[in-house]
Amino acid sequence: MADNCIFCKIIAGEIPSTTIYEDEDFQVILDINPASKGHALILPKGHYANIYQLPEDLAAKAMKLAKKLAEHMTDKLQCDGFNLVQNNGEVAGQTVFHFHLHLIPRYLDGANKDLLTWNNLQYKDGEVKQLEELLKC
Ligand code: 5GP
Ligand code: ZN
Questions:
Q1: Which is the closest atom of ligand 1 to the Cα of 87?
Q2: Mean pLDDT on 76-86
C-alpha cells in the first residue's frame, strides 16, 4: 500500500466505495464522478502507479476482466457502446496515480457525447516513414 493513495485506501477499506466485483487481484468500483451511468474502475489490489509499473501478468488479467465486465455491464445496463480508457501521466489526464482501467458505458441519448473526441492532425512528408523506422519492433 502506498502512502496517501486514495485507491489503496479504498482497497484497504479505509475509504468507502461501491464495489461491483472483487477477486484476489482486483477490485472494481463505481467512479465517484461518473462520465456516464455505470462508469466503473478496475483497480489492481497492489499499488502500481501506471501501465509502465504494472506487471505483465496483471495487465493481461485486467484486460480479460475488462472484457468480462464490458459484456456483463452492457447486458445489465442495456448501453449502446462501451469505452475502455486508461490514462498514464498528468499530461494524459491521469489524476490518481494508482493504475486503473476505466469502464465507461455509452448511451445514444446520454451525457458527454464528446467524450474522447480529438482534432485529427496531419503528418508532414517523410514523417510516417521515420515513425515506422523508429517504432517497428
Ligand atoms: P484518472 O483521471 O486518473 O484516469 O481517473 C481517476 C478517476 O478516479 C476519476 O474518474 C475520478 O472521478 C475517480 N475518483 C477519484 N477519487 C475517487 C474516490 O474517492 N472514489 C471513487 N469511487 N472514485 C474516485
Ligand atoms: Zn495505490
A1: 4
A2: 97
Just give the CATH number of 6-135: 3.30.428.10
Q: Is-catalytic flag, 102?
A: no
Q: Which is the closest atom of ligand 1 to the Cα of 93? A: 2
- CB-defined site of ligand 1, < 6 Å: 6, 15, 17, 29-33, 87, 93-96
pTM for the model? 0.97
Torsion angle, alpha carbons of 35, 65, 89, 33, to 10? 20
Q: For 10, phi and psi rounded to 5 degrees?
A: -65, -45
Report, as an integer, the average pLDDT of 85-101.
98
Choosing from 47, 72, 100, 102, the catalytic residue is: 100
Per the CB < 8 A criterion, the answer to whether 105 and 82 are in contact is: yes
53 or 112, higher pLDDT: 53
Q: Which pLDDT does position 41 carry in this prediction? A: 99
Per-residue pLDDT at 81: 97
CA distance 47 to 59: 13
Q: Give the domain ranges of the chain.
A: 6-135
Q: How far is the CA of 8 from the centre of ligand 2 (A)?
A: 4
